[in-house]
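Annex B. Sample input.
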Amino acid sequence: MTAGPVELTCAGRVVAEYVTRPDLPAALSPRPYFHPVRTFAGTEVTELTPADHRHHLGVSIAVPDVGGRNFWGGRTFVRGRGPTWLDNHGVQRHLSWAGRAAGAFTETLAWIGADGEAALRERRDVRAVAAGDHWALDVAFTLTNATRGPLRIGSPATNGRPGAGYGGFFWRAPGASAGLRVRTPHAEGEQAVHGARADWLALTGTAPDGRAWTLAFLPADAATAADPWFVRVAEYPGVGSSLAWERSLQVPPGGSVARRIVTVVADGHLSDAEIGKLREALCPAR
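Annex B, continued. Sample output.
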């Protein structure tokens, strides 16, 4: 059953909607997501279930391999077979609100496998914060092993597909955008920044109505800063922070993995200097 979206506000404006219990096919690995996310001027900067990847759900936390369970959606990459349809799709189930306000919430979730058992428990902390003329979506999540044994968090890359180390925080941007450009402080272009570690990564584009936008992704702690960026532009516009780029994560029973990403959602095309100043203001502890 689909629950109504939760509105996230910043500076008196609704900037995002968050769906906690989407009514989606099992093959999409149903999970809470943000969509639409908008700039202050109202430009949408997310896309939901696009035709090229139906399992891309705006902004979400998604992992393709949690001890063999698919919490990403779509096909599973199997070593020696390639992308394969398996009956292994899990669901992220909203359990409760630990706190909730107009511009922030804390949520508890269970990641339930196809066998009905919980693989992970999650605490998710979200804030919408003002950032000068723009705003930022601050998402922190802690994944805790809910099984009785060690739990492996992997990706297609750890299962034999080089360069496909996706899994974790993921943002699907609108495919209809023109003039897409991706860059870090030291490199530009999909091939140059895909797999790189950087203090920020910016994706810019122009909506069909001619309004420009920028998404500036900022790792807000040392653990997140150590994760490589997963980037797509030519095939579709998407950016993620990768939990298991080349090596899987081994999480002991009761152990946790915590990450935090702050994403500036801006009208116009921000310069490197502007992004640097926003990073200093929004992530001062880094």
